[in-house]
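From the shared-data thread, chain only:
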Amino acid sequence: MHNKVYVLDTAELDDETLFDRWLGKMTSRRRQKIAAFRFDKDKRLCLGAGILLAAAVQGGEKEPEYLVSEHGKPYFEDGRICFNLSHSGTLAVCAVSDREVGADVQQYRHFEDNLIRFVFQPGEVQRIYACETPEQRDILCTRLWTVKESIMKYLGTGIGLAPKKIRLDMNGAISAQCSDLSLEKLHFTHYQPDGCELTVCSEYEQFTDSLCTVSAKEL
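Structure, as tokens:
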């Protein structure tokens, strides 16, 4: 299994026929999850994640069955393939690997001062406010947020690990430290697809060089 990151623009799932066709290929777990969402946008994102998992593992035939840990991390029982899912805006993402992996994608957004000081450590805050423009500040905040989220998803801690407990060293390549956990072996690969920031956390210095764009219409 080579490291791969699959991305899908869920806007194409506006097509009800296409949406329903793929819904029939999902596990009962995902169908229930999709049904629980109130807004169509969230339904499409959830379905998009399932489509990518189906494409990555079973060539698009159907979504494979998987288990979910106590803190919500999905995994396959045999452990041969590791994966992680994320979505934001209209983009769904699935990272797959032969080793543990965490992935987080976020559409660029504005970070208010109180949120910045709530999730980032003092050194990170200082680096953020050193940005020359508000736009650069928001880009950096979004990137750093995806790094912290990707660590939490790699570890499978859920909200049990507060983002502010993770300290990011930004001298050169970003590295992470946490007083409660060993993070030295972790590396971060960054991508910027379609107005989003995407970070993959893994044991590989460079996870993969490019993204695999998937179309639900063409599978």
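The longest helix spans residues 134-155.
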